[in-house]
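Subject: two folds for Thursday's group meeting

Dear M.,

Sorry for the delay on this. The cluster queue was jammed most of the week, so I only got both jobs back this morning. I'm pasting them in the order they finished. Each block is the input sequence followed by the predicted structure tokens. Could you check whether the formatting survives your parser before we put anything on slides? The first protein is the one we discussed after the seminar.
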Amino acid sequence: MKSSQRRDAAKCEVENYAFTTTDGSTKVLSELFGAQRDLIIIHNMGKGCRYCTLWADGLNGMLPQMQSRTAVALLNGDSPETQKEFSESRGWNFAMMHDNGGAFTDEMGFSTVVDGKRHLIPGFSTFYKNDDGTILRVGADAFGPGDLYMPLFPMFDMLKDGVADWQPQYKY
């Protein structure tokens, strides 16, 4: 799907959800924009997912370039304390947000329920804040092994045996 198709398919007005930060304070979605009109929220499965850690590690390296164009926040279901500890251990510089109860993640389509258990889906959503303060989600896509959002995969695909049995680890 082309980026313009992903943008158009995701367009909808979004309420001003509240999140908990790693210091325990509350921030609403509109505050995450800071001085920017655009916002990228990274939907992350949390500390227990090596692949989500890989994406966050890679995106953290590009964070200054990203922030020169848009506000960026990482959101998952881990407790604020776990987020703080894990992000510090990885050297992440994201604004970290806890999705209180998961309603935002659910509305954005980054969770499913299987056998009564909620499962998170990694990816990102993009937002635009209008002059009147309304917030629009203008794009979204999922992360997954082999996608173009993690440059390792296209490069590994060019190796003789491709990705082979490689999987990300927390330490190498």
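Second protein, same layout:
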Amino acid sequence: MKDTTAVILGGGQGKRLFPLTLERAKPAVGFAGKYRLIDIPISNCINSGIKRIFVLTQFLSASLHRHIMQTYQFDTFTDGLIDIIAAEKSLVREGWFQGTADAVRATLRHTTYYAYKNMLILSGDHLYRMDYKKLIKFHQKSNADITISVSLASKSEASEFGLLKADEDGEIQEFVEKPTDEKIINKFKASHQFLNSLGLSFKSDKYMASMGIYVFKPKILFELLKDRSKTDFGKDVIPSAINNFKVMAYPFNGYWRDIGTIEAYFNENISLVDPEPEFKLYSPNWPIYTRTRSLPPSRIMNSEIQDSIIVEGSDIKGATVINSIVGTRSIINKNTKLEKVVMLGADFYEGETFLKPSEMKQKNGPPLGIGENCHICRAIIDKNARIGKSVTIRTDPSAADKDEQNCYVRNGITIVPRGAVIPDGTTIIN
């Protein structure tokens, strides 16, 4: 895998994950209480033996840069590197990336500095484990110019993805990005012949969906990116390449989810506390890496915990936590009840150096964490939030989206943004 360079796309504005992206890049959003979204593709690369990794960033990238630099450091006896490349202004361009393909085009002089035979392009907001060695081997064995990793989607999901049609050998004949017309969607039913050749069979119709994971031969990538009007891989580059190059579909049979929306992000977090979750955080010989913190074990005193994840450094006193994620350094006080809550924790303990003035304890304001006698249901509580005593936050799954002071509602979920202060006695019912 020394001949493979991986490029992770992390530069988008992250509008679908707003307000979690209000002050950070999308790949820097926390996951499962202790990881960041960027940890997933980087861990897949490292576990696959790929150690030349470039992360392309653009919007609000400071915390993403800090996390990567503090987490991923290869020793001097390997030729590995993780390089962060931000959008830059030059004599030939104004700076901002205009799409996924434009981001790769703009950074080619950096990502192609080292010799390579395969360019692996990845998204930064998907949840999955994949051995990229198998993908690269398939790409080389089939002598493909481009290989697209695909997953099977149901009809209800089909419009959310790029859909493709492949022959019985897996060569892609047609590609369309996120179609909404049902007649067009029906054209992209997966070939049963192709599925049978993989040992797969399904009672209902399935559609072959692009996972946003691509492998390119270097010269093909350069040729396709010459046309600067083509700014996005799914919308522009891939459809135009099919008639001129050999584009292959690599079927991926494992667990894979796009967690780039608030609803998907919330559901995938909460699903981790199922008795038998589809995606397990622990997998032998395939860990998810993240920043190592020298934190004390969590203290849980006189509390009831049901089907939840409690991350290190937390302090729970006399509370009830049900079907929830409690992140690093979380504080939950007595007679408080959490149900289906994703709490991302804090970057520091009360009294330590604060990250910025807006997150300092306000005069007579609540301390970090959640105060006494609170009831919170169906919510995401972002880092460094201060929720006072006797606060109620409940959200009906059918609640309409809206923006309020110190909280937002998206997809029937209330989000308390990073560093927000909710005063004592506040009631937020949507």
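Two things I noticed about the second structure. The longest strand covers residues 207-216. The chain has two domains: 4-271, 299-429.

Cheers,
T.
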